[in-house]
Structure formats: C-alpha cells, structure tokens
Structure prediction request, 329 residues.
Amino acid sequence: MRQIDHFISGGTGASASRFGDIMDPNNGGVQARVALGDAAVLERAVQAALAAQPAWATTNPQRRARVMFEFKRLVEANMDDLAHMLSSEHGKVIADSKGDIQRGLEVIEFCCGIPHVMKGEYSQGAGPGIDVYSMRQPIGVGAGITPFNFPGMIPLWMCGPAIATGNAFIIKPSERDPSVPVRLAELFIEAGLPEGICQVVHGDKEMVDAILDHPAIGAVSFVGSSDIAHYVYNRGVANGKRVQAMGGAKNHGIVMPDADLDQVVNDLAGAAFGSAGERCMALPVVVPVGDDTAERLKAKLIPAIQALRVGVSTDAEAHYGPVVTAQHK
Prediction:
C-alpha cells in the first residue's frame, strides 16, 4: 500500500511506528497510509531547519524572490497532477481542487515581490536629537498546522510569506489528505530552496503538542475548528510563541428584498454545495428579509438545488463530490 512519509531536509523521514489511514472519498476504502510522527520526528525537522535557516536569512531578498518565481512556475506546470492528487484524497471535484491551488498561488505571487515588502522605515527628528528606524527580520523557525479542507491553499498561504522573508517553515498538514503539501515541499526544493527550509511532518495531537511545546519554534499558524484553535492558541502563547489561530469560520447571508435573486441563487448554491460545503464560505445560515423575499427565494433556490449533480471527484459534470470521510458525513 502507498505510504506518505515525512519530508525532512529534502527527503523522506525515518520509519514510523504509527500510521493513519488515508481514505478514498469516492469509494470509502483505504487508499494509502500516512506516518504519524512524534516529538523525535519533529526534533529532526527542527534541527534541520535551525541548520539551514541562518544562511537562508542572509540570502538577499531578490534571490529569495527568484526561488518564489520558479516555485510558482513549477506549481503551474504541475497543476493538473496536483489537482488530481488533491481530489483523490479530499473528494472535491477537479475544478475546485485547481481553485484551491490557484488561491494559494495568489499569495506566492505576492511573495515574488517580497523585497519591497521587507523595506523598513526611518523617521528623522522624531524627538529632540532622536531618529527612529525599524527593520524587518525573520523570526527563525515557524510552523503551520493546516486543515483538511484546503490542503493546497492554506499551506501555501502560510509557508510562502514565512519562507520569502527568510524563515524556515514546518508544515503539519491534516492526516486525512497529506500528499499535496509533501509535493509542494518537493517542488520548493526543485525551485532552488535549500533543504531544511520547507519541511512536512505528519501526525495527530501528539505532533501538534510537540510543535506547540518546542522552544525553537518561534511562531505557529493554525486553521481549524474553534475548540482546537483555542487549545492551540493557549498552549502556544503559554510557551512564548507568536500564534495566529483561526477557527470556526462560517459565513452567514442576508437576502434583501431588492436583491437580484438569480445572482443570489447562483451564489448560494456555489457557496453551500461547492466542495460539498467543506469550506469557510459554506453559508450554513441564510436569512431572507421578509416573508415575500423568502418565498420568492425558495421558488428559485429549491429547483436549483435539485438540479445539482453529485458525483465522484473526477466527474467533469458533477457540481460537487463526496465529503472527505464517512465519519465526516
């Protein structure tokens, strides 16, 4: 059976004693297994990051930006393979998977201009005989704990700015669909990134706790549920880390009486059912203003919902595919 290993210092990690199943959302079977790491695995990744990061930090921003340009080109060149890989583990249709990766690339495009973003400031005469200046400097080693629903976009959102500004970054993706983050790390190496700067470790709560407790990891970014976001934030800041913990995002919609209902129906159907609703834009609550608005909306929305087609992730005619696991359903 196919096995997904850690990606540490440009290569696969050591043999694991624990594994998790990677399901095939299209048939409910097990398609692969992923190594579940612990503090010892994380330590290997951190030591590799600490060894590589100082030289990367002293690499001038223009050269770091060139790596970003080449990485963007490689991701675009491998878009079809990445999208099929993503869909095979997550279940979203290919078009959604390409959008997932493309949204991540928008941040990489921003990182291609990192030399300008890293400029500091200088204020002359801020006080009597006092000049004030600021410099932007890397933290060192950061880590990202990313969710299952956007296994391409969110790792790219996190690792791109961190790496472009001179940090090393360790990604702990969801164990449900870990293949795309590993492939992205491989493409970074191919683009010219030094080994040890972008690494991927897999695991469950044991690995998350190791990340939150490790003294050499200076910052952690998290996206996931509200309960886990609270846990990550409290444990991370207690250990002196910078933490951004984004959890429980769900949009709500208000439909005004003068709204273009054809546009509303199109937007609601896409938001609620695209990616089988497994995203922050899922719009679980929609409030029409007034009974007349509600009735007119239902008259258009219900037939539109009934016309949606669910299929396997590779079905080009399907509007959405299966959810990621049977337990999630």
In short: The chain has two domains: 2-247, 250-329. The chain has eleven helices and 14 strands.
